[in-house]
Amino acid sequence: MLMTRFNEAQMNGNHVSSNTPTTSQRTGRSSRRSHLPQKPLLTPRSNRGMVGSRKGQLLEEQENSTSVPSWQRASSVPAHKRPLIVSAKGSSSAGSVSDEAFQRAFTEVPKCNVFSSKQLKDQISEACAVLENTDLDWSRRMIALKTLRSVIIGGGLDYSDFSEEVREMQAALLTSVKDLRSQLCREACVTIAFFCERLGLVMVHVIDALMPTLISLMQNSAKVMATSAQLALQYVVKYVCSARLLPHLQTAMSSKSKEIRRNTASLFLMALTLWESRTVEKNMNIFLECIKASINDADPETRRTGRELFMQLDQEYKKQADMLYKALDPSKQRTLPGFVSQSSSSQSIISERDALPISQRNAAYVLHKASPSYYSGRSTSDIDPGAVRRVTNRTVRTASKWGGPLQQVNGTPSTTQMRTSAAQRLSSASQKFVSSLRRVPPTPTNYVRSQPGSRSSSPASRFPARIPPRSQMSSRTKIQIDEPEDHASVSSDSFRFETMELATALSCCASSSTTEKKEGLKALFTIISSDKQVNEMDLKKIVERLTPLIVEAAHKLLQPLTDTLIALVRRYHEELNDWLNLLIPKLVNKCSTEVLPSNLEKYRILMEAVRTSFDPEKQLYAICKFIRDPVRNNVSVKTKHGLLMYLHDLMRGMDSAPSMNQSEVRQAVSKIFQWVDDPKNICLMAISEKVVCDMFHLNASDFTSMLATFPNDLKDRLQTIVRKNSFCLSTGNGINTNEARVGILETTAQINDFVDRRTGLPISSPRVSPQLINGLARSPYDSIPLRRASREDQSGSLSGYILDPQGFADDPEQQEELITKIGEELSLHNQRSEERQRAMSVLSQITRDNLFSLWDKHFKMIFLLLIETLKDSDENIRRMALKLLKEICYAQASRFNEFAEMALMRVLDACTDESKLVVTAAEECGGVLATHVSSATCRRVLLAIIKSDVGEPKIHIAIKLLTKVIESLSATELELILDEVAPPIVDTYNYVSSSIRKESVVCLVAMIMLVGEEHMAPYLSELNKGKQKLIDVYVKRMKGIFE
What we know:
Elements: H1 2-11, H2 23-26, H3 30-33, H4 45-53, H5 55-61, H6 88-93, H7 99-107, H8 117-132, H9 138-153, H10 162-166, H11 170-177, H12 182-199, H13 204-217, H14 223-239, H15 246-252, H16 258-274, H17 277-282, H18 284-295, H19 300-316, H20 318-327, H21 330-333, H22 346-349, H23 358-369, H24 385-402, H25 431-438, H26 499-509, H27 514-529, H28 536-552, H29 555-572, H30 580-593, H31 597-613, H32 616-628, H33 637-652, H34 663-677, H35 685-698, H36 700-707, H37 712-725, H38 737-758, E1 771-773, E2 776-778, H39 805-809, H40 812-826, H41 833-848, H42 855-869, H43 875-891, H44 900-910, H45 916-932, H46 935-947, H47 952-967, H48 971-976, H49 978-988, H50 994-1011, H51 1013-1020, H52 1025-1042
Antiparallel strand pairs: 1-2
């Protein structure tokens, strides 16, 4: 009886164990019970207060410590039902695989020497066959995986066929990774990691298929499988630096499993650290989204990795880090290392009133004693000791982890001057709104105000809402001081761009109250007009808020709305080109339906600002896209008339000749005449004819090319309009009416000649063909003097225009001398920009006017010089070279076939240029190459680009050019190459980028319109029903347009 009570007392933990063995120990029960969790000693009542006082500290440290399972604490769960406790060594690493184990396994393979390509293929094929057969013994499959590694070690990489065999391993590796046996899965992960280390980007297609499975393995309960997948993915991210991995990782960040999210965040940190900056910058949106998700994650480890990601981002990409910082909640901003001093609300400081341990008070005192300005401007009684301790802990951790000095973590050195001009930023245009901003409860995260109390009512103790209360700014605050006496300019980051002001202004614009909308628009105008630069994310928010206001604008809102829009388009027109598709139709619609003269005048001023600010070519294409869209162009007759009037005014003011032979322009012209044919739209006839004549005068050569694509009845109709309006031209441009009349007759004759040549009529001369119109036989150079003398220099050489066109065309010696001078100028790369532009102007004239007859001798030299000029440092030279290539391709298309691949590759490279003007010229040049050069060559080059991993911009342009190649083919020709063309486009329809998916749909619709839905059905069956329905919708729209 006594021994039983003794044993119970010992089990309850109330008795100190002695060296005397108990009954249970003698009977062997200790071997089982020693693994059971022991109940903690009872806490004396006198000590319970101390435990309660440490509650806040425990809650604070819970973020950075491993959570203790409930069964490990004191509980009422019986001992025999509690799980066994395994020692720390066994529980944390039992069954896990280390990187050292992977490295050893790489070379622990049977010896295999490869002596020929045939032997290489046989070895790989045999191993893959074994791996794909899941009925075989698992040991044989493990040997097959080792054989794949031994092939590389034995010299398989020396053969060029090896890269082709890599794709054959995809199914075998996928089957092995999915296997339920942990050893086989581990061996497959080792093989994948080894292949990535040795092959790099060659593995990108295989890895693309394996990524979902590897990611799902990270949450596996078997440590062997989970850690193997983690290590394999680390090798993948380290050695296969491709943007195709990012969509899989982005999807993984939204997983329900915290293990997957935690490890994925670590993989993003690897990618951000190791990948080339070019790859990271092109996919920065994905990185920013995943860093934000990591910082906001529910898992503490994932949040910690997210903060490390942000620190790495801030070191490499300051601008993007600033954008991300602004997008975070204030509570999350305060958790970022190095940004502690930006706590903007005293509520965050007093949120936890836990006590400060004595052991940490000295460190906190030293920290803040080093920066006395910490207390300036605020009451020290409002400082919570817990917040001070948290600052200390976070500072020490950051300094020790990143090697930075302790005194620099809390902020940059205090500035000697504070700029106060920002306090009046909103006062000039919206005094009422400024006062309302100061009354808004949320405070910008940059400023700290004291807790409301007895001192807060004193005016002397309060700071203005826009002036920082202490001189030591945050480490995120960078004030750029140019001149000591210059107090008017503040850098874009000095006050973090007044994020709260912009957000409040936008929210006021969304209010249902007209007064609040008016004040919001005034504040928005002040922000846009200020010296600060609005970033792209904020511009997008502003545009999204202003677009609906254009439609619903009341009379009271019209003046502030037009002022804001005018300021926006005049300052940020280069960043808002994509907005034209919505802006111009909405403005035209409002202007067409407005009845009040005062409002109408405001809309006209706004439309004039839009017309003069944006690129005319962009506006032209935006209007044409709207006109051809069967969904959006269902508007009233007044709106249609307003659109055509806007187009007429736009083209009248254009100096340069845009490319007219574009699909958007062709379809828009067809749609305009469909409107005219409707009896309800009879009033559109006159303005439609003016628009056609404007297009003709802007770019006659492109217009004639476009004519050849129209049906005969529409082609005859357009030619009749040009002839009819030729005698009604305005003489306001200084040209004699008779000269203009003759010029129109000549150009109309050139249209007929061009169309006839397209239909296969013989050409009498390689340079100039006699034209026949209305019984008048003449040459285009017989009676018109060249009206370009104002650009000729005194010597007449390389002036940009030829003095005697007919004499030059008949004199080979003069041509030889001129082309030699042009070649000498073009060979001076990155020098004499004006002279080279003049040389290219001369070459453009003699090409366009068909005055040069020595192409057989000099074509290769001219072509190579222009290709080399595309690398010039001057963007105007690059753009002019592309336009010249386009004109030469028009005139000498057959000669381009020999150099088509080089030309296409260089033009596609130019499509990724930094200058938007160069990109536009490259797209136009590529479109001409696609329709004038051999379709087989273009198809081969473009498909190679589409299938490769060269980046989204090139793939997007390649699909667009392939669409033009397809449109130039007949149905019979397309049927023969359908197996070659259709599958890659179906694959790109599943691409991550929306622009590539959209272009893929256009390409697939073009194929369907040529060969019919029956021939395309086998290829489209691979798509899901939603995507197939979307294609059907576009096909029906296209059929409606053609009908």
